[in-house]
Amino acid sequence: MIKQIWFDFGNIFIPVFPENTKEQFERCGVQLSEAHFTELHHAFEVGELSQHEFFQSLTDSCKFLQSTQCVKRAWNSMLGDLRDETLFLKKLSTTYDLALVSNTNAAHIEAIAAASGPFLWKQFTNAFDGRFLSHEIHERKPDASYFEKVAKRMNA
């Protein structure tokens, strides 16, 4: 019998448009190799880099003087609006334990919370019995260690 449902965050509850960030990075003059960006992004998503360190690294790579705020806006430009699925989640939570699982970072969570407003954000996050964000648990999907950690904490 199914007792839990684990939901991904991106493109389930919030649309994600990475091409927007790529385009905005080009406008800001971010100049990183694909390999270097992938390395930075991974470190940021598992909490090895702070927001300051991540955005400073991106800003330092710019071909012309750029503010960290410009780079941060470019980074967050991939995010769509949080869908209000609180009634759906509330109904499911009467039968199942719910978990939110996501490869994400503190900057995106802050941006989503601010854009959705305190009421919707609180209702949304409170619908879950567990919230497993890569930057908080220092693991990424699809690594087995990520799912093992979630399963253990959810008593699955």
Description:
The chain is globular. It has helices at 18-28, 34-45, 51-60, 68-76, 86-93, 106-116, 118-126, 134-137, 144-153, and strands at 4-8, 97-102, 130-133. The protein folds into 2 domains: 4-14 and 82-153, Rossmann fold (3-Layer(aba) Sandwich); 18-76, DNA polymerase, domain 1, CATH 1.10.150. α1 packs antiparallel against α4 (68-76) and α2 (34-45) packs antiparallel against α3 (51-60). The chain is mostly helical. Strands 1-2-3 form a 3-stranded parallel sheet.
Furnish the topology, listing elements before pairings.
Elements: E1 4-8, H1 18-28, H2 34-45, H3 51-60, H4 68-76, H5 86-93, E2 97-102, H6 106-116, H7 118-126, E3 130-133, H8 134-137, H9 144-153
Parallel strand pairs: 1-2, 2-3
Q: Write down the CATH topology of the largest domain.
A: Rossmann fold
SS class:
mainly alpha
Q: What is the overall number of helices?
A: 9
Number of strands: 3
Largest sheet: 3 strands, parallel
How far apart are the termini? 12 Å
Q: What is the count of structural domains?
A: 2
Shape: globular
Name of the CATH architecture of the largest domain: 3-Layer(aba) Sandwich
Strand order of the largest sheet: 1-2-3
What's the CATH first level of the largest domain? Alpha Beta
Give a summary of the structure in a few sentences:
The protein is mainly alpha-helical and 156 residues long.
Key terms:
Rossmann fold, 54% helix, mainly alpha, globular, 156 residues, 3 strands, 10% strand, 3-stranded parallel beta sheet, DNA polymerase, domain 1
